[in-house]
Write a structure and sequence with these properties.
about 15% strand, alpha+beta, 2 domains, three-stranded antiparallel β-sheet, single chain, about 190 residues
Length: about 190
Protein backbone atom coordinates (compact mmCIF):
# COMPACT_ATOMS: atom_id res chain seq x y z
CA UNK A 1 0.00 0.00 0.00
CA UNK A 2 1.38 3.42 -0.99
CA UNK A 3 2.00 6.14 1.51
CA UNK A 4 1.36 9.75 0.54
CA UNK A 5 2.91 12.97 1.79
CA UNK A 6 0.05 15.48 1.93
CA UNK A 7 0.42 19.24 2.45
CA UNK A 8 -2.45 21.21 4.04
CA UNK A 9 -3.06 24.96 4.23
CA UNK A 10 -3.89 26.51 7.61
CA UNK A 11 -7.62 26.36 6.72
CA UNK A 12 -7.39 22.58 6.23
CA UNK A 13 -7.44 22.69 2.43
CA UNK A 14 -5.16 20.21 0.72
CA UNK A 15 -2.48 21.98 -1.28
CA UNK A 16 -0.57 19.05 -2.77
CA UNK A 17 0.15 15.37 -2.35
CA UNK A 18 2.80 13.02 -3.67
CA UNK A 19 3.81 9.44 -2.96
CA UNK A 20 6.59 8.84 -0.50
CA UNK A 21 8.17 6.41 -2.94
CA UNK A 22 11.04 7.93 -4.91
CA UNK A 23 11.39 11.11 -2.89
CA UNK A 24 14.77 12.70 -2.31
CA UNK A 25 16.41 14.32 0.69
CA UNK A 26 15.18 17.89 1.17
CA UNK A 27 12.15 17.43 -1.11
CA UNK A 28 9.64 17.94 1.68
CA UNK A 29 11.12 21.28 2.78
CA UNK A 30 11.56 22.49 -0.79
CA UNK A 31 7.93 21.60 -1.55
CA UNK A 32 6.72 23.37 1.59
CA UNK A 33 8.65 26.52 0.65
CA UNK A 34 7.29 26.48 -2.89
CA UNK A 35 3.69 25.95 -1.71
CA UNK A 36 4.06 28.73 0.85
CA UNK A 37 5.27 31.10 -1.86
CA UNK A 38 2.46 30.12 -4.27
CA UNK A 39 -0.27 30.48 -1.62
CA UNK A 40 0.99 33.54 0.26
CA UNK A 41 1.44 31.72 3.57
CA UNK A 42 4.38 30.88 5.81
CA UNK A 43 6.05 27.46 5.38
CA UNK A 44 5.61 26.75 9.11
CA UNK A 45 1.83 27.19 8.71
CA UNK A 46 1.62 24.29 6.27
CA UNK A 47 0.71 20.98 7.92
CA UNK A 48 2.26 17.83 6.48
CA UNK A 49 0.67 14.42 7.01
CA UNK A 50 1.48 10.91 5.93
CA UNK A 51 -1.63 9.19 4.56
CA UNK A 52 -2.47 5.70 3.33
CA UNK A 53 -3.58 4.98 -0.24
CA UNK A 54 -7.00 3.74 0.97
CA UNK A 55 -7.73 7.08 2.64
CA UNK A 56 -6.82 8.93 -0.56
CA UNK A 57 -9.15 6.69 -2.59
CA UNK A 58 -11.98 7.28 -0.11
CA UNK A 59 -11.51 11.04 -0.49
CA UNK A 60 -11.47 10.74 -4.29
CA UNK A 61 -14.78 8.89 -4.17
CA UNK A 62 -16.29 11.56 -1.89
CA UNK A 63 -15.05 14.28 -4.22
CA UNK A 64 -16.62 12.57 -7.23
CA UNK A 65 -19.88 12.21 -5.31
CA UNK A 66 -19.85 15.97 -4.61
CA UNK A 67 -19.19 16.75 -8.28
CA UNK A 68 -22.11 14.52 -9.29
CA UNK A 69 -24.33 16.21 -6.69
CA UNK A 70 -23.55 19.59 -8.22
CA UNK A 71 -24.76 18.38 -11.59
CA UNK A 72 -28.04 17.10 -10.18
CA UNK A 73 -28.60 20.18 -7.99
CA UNK A 74 -28.40 22.67 -10.85
CA UNK A 75 -30.50 21.49 -13.84
CA UNK A 76 -28.76 21.79 -17.24
CA UNK A 77 -25.41 22.40 -15.56
CA UNK A 78 -22.21 20.79 -16.81
CA UNK A 79 -18.48 20.48 -16.22
CA UNK A 80 -16.44 21.73 -19.15
CA UNK A 81 -13.02 20.44 -20.32
CA UNK A 82 -11.27 23.11 -18.17
CA UNK A 83 -12.83 21.51 -15.06
CA UNK A 84 -15.18 24.44 -14.50
CA UNK A 85 -18.62 23.66 -13.13
CA UNK A 86 -21.07 25.79 -15.11
CA UNK A 87 -24.19 26.21 -12.98
CA UNK A 88 -25.96 28.58 -15.38
CA UNK A 89 -24.50 28.96 -18.85
CA UNK A 90 -26.35 32.08 -20.03
CA UNK A 91 -25.23 34.15 -17.05
CA UNK A 92 -21.81 32.44 -16.90
CA UNK A 93 -22.13 31.36 -13.26
CA UNK A 94 -19.31 28.90 -12.61
CA UNK A 95 -16.73 27.68 -10.13
CA UNK A 96 -13.35 26.12 -10.86
CA UNK A 97 -13.19 22.55 -9.58
CA UNK A 98 -9.58 21.72 -10.44
CA UNK A 99 -8.27 23.17 -7.16
CA UNK A 100 -10.94 21.51 -4.99
CA UNK A 101 -9.35 18.66 -3.06
CA UNK A 102 -12.26 17.80 -0.76
CA UNK A 103 -16.06 18.04 -0.82
CA UNK A 104 -15.71 20.82 1.76
CA UNK A 105 -13.73 22.87 -0.79
CA UNK A 106 -16.66 22.60 -3.21
CA UNK A 107 -19.17 23.52 -0.50
CA UNK A 108 -17.14 26.62 0.34
CA UNK A 109 -16.98 27.66 -3.30
CA UNK A 110 -20.73 27.20 -3.74
CA UNK A 111 -21.34 29.52 -0.77
CA UNK A 112 -18.70 32.07 -1.77
CA UNK A 113 -19.41 32.28 -5.49
CA UNK A 114 -23.09 31.35 -5.89
CA UNK A 115 -24.48 33.45 -3.02
CA UNK A 116 -24.29 36.58 -5.20
CA UNK A 117 -26.24 35.18 -8.16
CA UNK A 118 -28.75 33.68 -5.72
CA UNK A 119 -29.20 37.14 -4.22
CA UNK A 120 -28.58 40.03 -6.59
CA UNK A 121 -26.97 39.30 -9.97
CA UNK A 122 -29.15 40.70 -12.77
CA UNK A 123 -28.22 39.04 -16.09
CA UNK A 124 -31.61 39.84 -17.67
CA UNK A 125 -33.27 43.13 -18.57
CA UNK A 126 -36.66 41.97 -17.24
CA UNK A 127 -37.05 41.88 -13.47
CA UNK A 128 -39.26 38.74 -13.52
CA UNK A 129 -36.50 36.82 -15.30
CA UNK A 130 -33.96 37.98 -12.74
CA UNK A 131 -36.25 36.81 -9.91
CA UNK A 132 -36.60 33.44 -11.60
CA UNK A 133 -32.81 33.29 -12.02
CA UNK A 134 -32.27 34.09 -8.29
CA UNK A 135 -34.75 31.34 -7.36
CA UNK A 136 -32.95 28.87 -9.65
CA UNK A 137 -29.57 29.64 -8.09
CA UNK A 138 -30.90 29.60 -4.50
CA UNK A 139 -32.66 26.30 -5.10
CA UNK A 140 -29.44 24.83 -6.55
CA UNK A 141 -27.42 26.04 -3.56
CA UNK A 142 -29.98 24.60 -1.13
CA UNK A 143 -30.21 21.30 -3.03
CA UNK A 144 -26.45 20.85 -3.15
CA UNK A 145 -25.77 21.84 0.46
CA UNK A 146 -28.93 20.19 1.82
CA UNK A 147 -29.94 23.47 3.44
CA UNK A 148 -33.05 25.64 3.47
CA UNK A 149 -31.53 29.12 3.18
CA UNK A 150 -34.09 31.87 2.70
CA UNK A 151 -33.57 34.91 0.48
CA UNK A 152 -32.55 36.87 3.60
CA UNK A 153 -30.12 34.10 4.61
CA UNK A 154 -28.41 34.03 1.22
CA UNK A 155 -28.19 37.85 1.21
CA UNK A 156 -26.44 37.70 4.60
CA UNK A 157 -24.13 34.92 3.39
CA UNK A 158 -23.21 36.99 0.34
CA UNK A 159 -22.57 40.11 2.45
CA UNK A 160 -20.29 38.22 4.84
CA UNK A 161 -18.70 35.44 2.76
CA UNK A 162 -19.33 36.35 -0.88
CA UNK A 163 -16.45 36.36 -3.37
CA UNK A 164 -14.32 34.43 -0.86
CA UNK A 165 -13.65 37.63 1.09
CA UNK A 166 -13.38 35.67 4.38
CA UNK A 167 -12.52 32.15 3.28
CA UNK A 168 -11.47 30.94 6.73
CA UNK A 169 -14.87 32.04 8.08
CA UNK A 170 -16.57 30.15 5.24
CA UNK A 171 -14.67 27.01 6.23
CA UNK A 172 -15.75 27.46 9.87
CA UNK A 173 -19.35 28.06 8.74
CA UNK A 174 -19.35 24.80 6.78
CA UNK A 175 -17.82 22.94 9.71
CA UNK A 176 -20.57 24.33 11.97
CA UNK A 177 -23.25 22.75 9.82
CA UNK A 178 -23.94 25.95 7.85
CA UNK A 179 -25.96 27.35 10.73
CA UNK A 180 -27.08 30.91 9.99
CA UNK A 181 -27.50 31.51 13.73
CA UNK A 182 -23.85 30.50 14.29
CA UNK A 183 -22.67 32.74 11.44
CA UNK A 184 -24.59 35.79 12.71
CA UNK A 185 -23.24 35.24 16.22
CA UNK A 186 -19.69 34.80 14.92
CA UNK A 187 -19.88 37.97 12.80
CA UNK A 188 -21.23 39.91 15.77
CA UNK A 189 -18.39 38.60 17.97
CA UNK A 190 -15.75 39.58 15.43
CA UNK A 191 -17.19 43.07 14.96
CA UNK A 192 -17.33 43.88 18.68
Amino acid sequence: MKKWVVFYAPDGRELLAYTLEGTFEGELEATKNQLAHENGIRPEDIAVKLEEDADRKKNAAALQEARDALLTSFPNSFINPRDEFIAHERSNQYIILSNCRTPEDIECKVLEWFSRPAHKTAPYSQEWRNRRFHEFMLQGVNNFLDTAFSEDDIAFIYDVLGNACKHSLTVEFVRHGMSIAWLKEEVEKRES
